[in-house]
Fold:
Amino acid sequence: MEFSDDLIEALKMAKRVVVLTGAGVSAESGVPTFRGPDGIWKKFKAEDLATLDSFMARPELVWEWYNWRRDLMSNVKPNPGHMAITEMEVMFLSFWLVTQNVDGLHQRAGSKKVLPLHGNIFDSYCMECGKYYADPPFKDGLPRCSCGGLIRPDVVWFGEQLDPELITKAFDAAEKAQVFLSVGTSAVVMPAASLPVVAKRSGAYVVEINPERTELSDMLDEFIEGKSGEVMPELVKRLKAK
Ligand code: OAD
Structure:
């Protein structure tokens, strides 16, 4: 695989690098993406499942969906794309991986400098007292806290605020980045989708890696057409080569 001299030069010089990932990086592990022909949102309506209102109205149904996804995600493995991103972490003075994924595959691949903007599907917490649970106790279809409160998944739903500390760190990293890679995201869900634009405006060399073009593709420095599990390992190999 050939990479442009501009990208290789920018990465070789860079001290501060940010990678933004979306569902596409986990596609090759067997986790369905949200949009596109086989996407989750083709089968389910986001507002029926991924909002606080729908959870309060039908918590059993929403929990059933999350348990199905938790089960699926615990039975898959990180792919070469996750592994390559983990390898990149130690190649630069400052590195941040901003992910919209809740599947924990980056962390399982060994990534440490992760900002998981949308939460973690394997955590949940009590809506009354805030207590965290890795394995929430289900009774009659619903998990209940020792205080009696309803337990919810630790993910960000549509209409909810992101953790202010995480989003501040992500924007700060995007502003300071010299190279910014947007990998496997359709770049439509805010505020994550604005990170590549912020990086570009702040002077970073911004590259998108995706088998399909997105609305951002034309605004960035380069679009690399391909799968994360193929492009990212090649890129790391190229950087390691003298
Ligand atoms: P999407 O499903 O919107 O986009 C997945 C992207 O991955 C698409 O642009 C695909 O072309 C691309 N893709 C597919 N296979 C790929 C591969 N092997 N390598 C690289 N790219 C590939 O997922 P996200 O952009 O992550 O939010 O969606 C953002 C947010 O919308 C999600 O975090 C979720 C969803 O609603 C919440 O749940 C809050």
Q: What stands out?
A: DSSP finds eleven helices and eleven strands in the chain. The longest strand covers residues 119-126.
